[in-house]
Amino acid sequence: MTDTASGERTLVLIKPDGVRRGLCGDVIARYERKGLKIAAAKMLLVSKETAERHYDEHKAKPFFPELVRFLTSSPVLALAVEGRNAVAVVRLLNGATKPWEAVAGTVRGDLALALTPNVVHASDSVATAQRELPLYFHEKDFVSYQRVDETFL
Ligand code: CMP
């Protein structure tokens, strides 16, 4: 389920480069400051099978093997991020996929230079979020709570 009382739910992965560079706190803080809510979080090593299912749409692309190798190379932090228009808002905060095109102020605009290690992944639509979230979370992993500033969000 990606539509909740708090709005949409989307998947974010802080990729191996983001974890190993110690950027998890910085990235999460951006979502929290915007008013989005973390509904689930899990540090995990992604299996080859999960990585291949995750990036299935890129299977035929030349960069697919490198993508899978990189995603499985060390732990990622998987997040379920909730809020009004969460899918689009998270992608806006993350910035363009190619970090050299990402504007300053975004995660990739501020923190990345390269294409495969580009710090974060986020679902690109509500339908994609519905497909991607179950790759990392069970329904029981999602928690429900109120932010104290919810009246203003
Ligand atoms: P992500 O949002 O995780 O979705 C697919 C990933 O493929 C993308 O971020 C990039 O890290 C990676 N990638 C590698 N090469 C390319 C490419 N040529 N075009 C787009 N994405 C690429």
Globally, the shape reads: globular
- Main beta-sheet annotation: 5 strands, antiparallel
Q: Report how far the terminal alpha carbons are from each other.
A: 21 Å
Percent of residues in helices = 25-40%
CATH topology, which one? Alpha-Beta Plaits
What is the count of helical runs? 7
List keywords for this structure.
single chain, 153 residues, alpha+beta, Alpha-Beta Plaits, five-stranded antiparallel β-sheet, 7 helices, 37% helix, globular, binds adenosine-3',5'-cyclic-monophosphate
Q: How would you describe this structure to a colleague?
A:
- The protein has 153 residues and is of the alpha+beta class.
- The protein has one domain (3-143): Nucleoside diphosphate kinase-like domain (Alpha-Beta Plaits).
- The protein is 37% helix and 19% strand.
- The chain contains 7 helices and 5 strands, in the order ββααβααβααβα.
- The protein has helices at residues 16-20, 24-34, 48-54, 64-71, 86-94, 107-111, 126-136, and strands at 3-4, 7-14, 37-44, 76-83, 120-122.
- Strands 1, 2, 3, 4 and 5 form a 5-stranded antiparallel beta sheet that branches.
- A hairpin with a 2-residue loop joins strand 1 (3-4) and strand 2.
- It starts with a strand and ends in a 17-residue tail after the last helix.
- The relative contact order is 0.25.
- The mean pLDDT is 96.
- The structure holds adenosine-3',5'-cyclic-monophosphate.
- Adenosine-3',5'-cyclic-monophosphate binds next to loops.
